[in-house]
Amino acid sequence: MSIKSKIEQLSLQERRQLAHAFDCGVSQYIKISGTNEFVGVHLVLERVKHLQIKEITGVWSHGTVKRN
C-alpha cells in the first residue's frame, strides 16, 4: 500500500499532528491503530532504529515498528 493510503487510515487528529510536524520540519511518526505499522515524516534513520522503514516518498515514511 502507498503512504497516502496509510495516512488515510489515521484519525483526523493524527493526520493533523503529522501535518504540523511536516510544516515545522519536525521528526514524527504515528503507529497505525491495531497494527505494528507506522507513518512518519522527517524521520532520521539513525534515531529511529526501532522502526523498519519499508517505503519512503519525499520526507514521508511507512513501515513497521520492531518493538514497542
Mean pLDDT: 93
Summed up, the domain count is: 1
Distance between the termini: 23 Å
Q: What share of the residues lie within helices?
A: 25-40%
* N-to-C series of helices and strands: HHEEEE
Q: Biggest sheet, open or closed, and with what strands and sense?
A: 4 strands, antiparallel
Count of helical stretches: 2
Percent strand equals: 25-35%
Spans where pLDDT lies below 50 across 5 or more residues: none
Classification by helices and strands: alpha+beta
C-alpha geometry = globular
Quick one: how many beta strands? 4
Over the alpha carbons, how many angstroms does the gyration radius reach?
A: 11 Å
Q: Please list the strands of the largest sheet in the order they lie side by side.
A: 1-2-4-3
Give a structural overview:
The structure is a single chain. The chain is built from two helices and four strands. A hairpin with a 5-residue loop joins strand 1 and strand 2. The chain is globular. The chain is an alpha+beta fold. It has one domain. It has helices at residues 3-8, 12-24, and strands at residues 28-31, 37-41, 51-57, 60-65. It has a four-stranded antiparallel sheet with strand order 1-2-4-3. The model has no long low-confidence stretch (mean pLDDT 93).
